[in-house]
Structure formats: C-alpha cells, structure tokens
Amino acid sequence: MKLARPDIFHPRIVLAGDARRGEDDGVPEIDDAGLVDALRHRGLHARRLPWDDPQTLDADLVILRTAGDDRPAEFAAWTRRAPNLLNPPEVVAWNTDRRCLGDLQCDGVPMRSGHAAGEVTTLVFFGGGRSHAFGAAGPDPDFELWDVGRAALRAAAERLSIRIEELLYARADVAGTAADARLVSLDLVAPQFGWGELAADERDRAQRRFALEVEAALDRLGLGPLSQRRP
After folding, report:
1. Which domains does the chain have, with CATH numbers?
2. Which of 11, 75, 80, 194 could form a disulfide linkage to 60, CB 3.0–4.6 angstroms apart?
C-alpha cells in the first residue's frame, strides 16, 4: 500500500491467521472478508499473515484471527512475543483455559450448559460496545440478552484487571429468551464475527466500527498515525 504521507508514522497492523500452509494464509476468507479493506479505508497499513510467520513479530499491532489450536504450546509462547497483541496475551491465556466459564459463573454471570443449537443468539462486541447480533433472536435481540453478554465482558475484564474497552472484540453466545437469558460461551481469542449472517449495509457498518476501535487501540497504545512523526 502506498503511504500518502511518508513523513507520518504509519503503524504496521497484522491480522494473524492460521499457521502457514503453503500458499494459503489460513485466514477464513468468508468471516474476515472486508476487515483489511476497512482498516485501509481508514488509512491504516494492514495485512494478513499466518501467526507463525516471523514477520508478525515486526508489526506494530497484531490482531488475532486464529486460536492456534493445532500447536497450542507454541501458539501460547508466540502470543507473549507478538507486539501489542489484541486481545492481549493474558486474555488469551485465561479464555483458553476451560475453567474460565466457571470463573464467570462464580462472578455472577448466569450460565447454561444444556441448550438446543437453535436457541442460541450470538452477540458481537467491539471495544466493549455492542456491534451486531445474529442467531435465534435475529439481528435485534432484547436488551436482556445484551446485558448477559455485557456482564460476561465486565466480569472477564475485572478478573484480568483491564478496562472493558481494551477488549478489541468479543463474541458471547447466549441461550434462552429475555426472561431467562444465560451465557453459553464467551470467545475473546479469535471469534468468528458472522459477517455472512448480516445484510450488506449492516456488515459495512460493523466493519467500520471494527476499524474505528482498532484506531482507538492504536491511540491508547501511543501508536496512532499522528502520534509519531518520522524525522
């Protein structure tokens, strides 16, 4: 990408996908379609790479798009080396521990272990704020369902001693109705955002919000395009 102002610092952003497999970078094309373009539209230098590509360690900001399930120990070590990883490595470590749902239940988040797949509504948050939803309750679920998702994010942030807005993204799967909404799962590592479930205009809005939250994260980390000027 040609930089319009070479005198201004342009942070290098990598969306880190599955491990290298020949020519395939492993990032789910359907789920992540448009994210790089949305970031570039904001003037941000973004590209996709496999998480185990050495170039990820040269980035200024790394956004996880895989959970590294095939090589968990190596992946966990890499998360601690990747620069300015989002979500942060301590979030990844906690969320990949099977005890995390028990932690949330202890913190008062209503949980539900047995459920039918058709009852689940998926809630997607960017920067701690709600972005979009899909599933059983459709694109506009009752606020009680959002409250359960938000309670899970708040409990996770408090356990990890971070602010809720430091979570670039989160996906909460919630079962039941407004009268009995309960958390099924919380993904803070590399959730699928369900772009294919959204209408085109809604998908564009959500991807713009994602890009704006990445900008906010860069500013928070002192990496905003205008925060540093090249000599």
Report:
1. 1-87+195-231 (3.40.50), 98-188 (3.30.470)
2. 11
